[in-house]
Design goal:
With 254 residues, the chain is an alpha+beta fold. 15% of the residues lie in helices and 37% in strands.
Length: 254
């Protein structure tokens, strides 16, 4: 298990507010920073993130010191470019470095844990990165970034069931990521039975140049603890092969 945590100092770009009436959450499969035009361009990814003004970002397909992406520590670089704090969870070793999922947060990270997901030995290993943040005016929230298998329905189902079991306590939880299935897909039902699909009105996210399916999600529980203020899919057809999903939430008093 390999976990990297980064807390970088250029936070002036996105200052922390004393209290937060809403929480803006983004999920974005960034395709190791390579756009559909073949360009490797992390500043472009960072620009998409900054334009959405998120508080929390779940990232998938991140490289750390991998040859194909110029040996860049991508979570660290995105943290520098956005002024947010970053954490990384390795899924696999790749070309001298690591590949996996990440989180960017405007708030301090209270804790973090990389939890590998189950899967068939012949398939690419998958993981889930769990962080806890202290949100002013809202309290502690668990935020999970994940990326399920894209070919095996059985592996996805096992991953969904396992992840759902890990977060069935009373901690307010947001799970975000590329689940590689649709909202009514049989493989992801274990999660959707326990969570509210707060990005349901956001529209399709894949493929980026002409999206016709939504496989990127933000899910919330307890299901009666959140009010959806806004959902949107930014009009970004080039920066990655997925478009990001952005959800603005308000925590209910329960």
């Amino acid at each position: 298990m390999w976990i990297a945590f980064l807390a970088l100092g250029s936070i002036a770009m996105m200052p922390t507010a004393p209290a937060t009436s809403t929480l803006t959450v983004m999920t974005f499969n960034v395709h190791h920073g390579e756009g559909v035009d073949g360009r490797l361009d992390l500043p472009r990814i960072a620009g998409v993130i900054l334009a959405a003004k998120p508080d929390l970002v779940a990232l998938q397909e991140l490289d750390v010191n991998v040859g194909r992406s110029d040996r860049t520590d991508q979570p660290a670089e995105l943290a520098r470019l956005t002024g947010m704090r970053a954490a990384f969870g390795k899924a696999i070793d790749l070309d001298g470095g690591a590949y996996g999922v990440g989180v960017l947060s405007r708030f301090p990270l209270v804790s973090e844990q990389n939890r590998p997901l189950p899967g068939s030995p012949e398939r690419e290993a998958r993981t889930s990165l769990h962080v806890v943040v202290e949100v002013p005016g809202t309290g502690r929230v668990r935020f999970v970034s994940t990326h399920f298998d894209h070919k095996s329905r059985d592996d996805r189902a096992h991953q969904a069931k396992t992840l759902a079991g890990w977060v069935e306590d009373d901690v307010p939880t947001l799970v975000a990521g590329d689940l590689n299935d649709v909202a009514n897909g049989s493989s992801v039902r274990p999660l959707f039975r326990r969570f509210l699909d707060v990005g349901a009105q956001g529209g399709p996210t894949y493929p980026a140049h002409r999206p016709d399916v939504r496989i990127d999600f933000v899910l919330a529980r307890p299901t009666d603890a959140w009010t959806v203020v806004e959902t949107r899919v930014p009009e970004e057809p080039v920066a990655s092969d997925h478009r990001p999903l952005v959800v603005v939430l308000r925590r209910r008093s329960i």
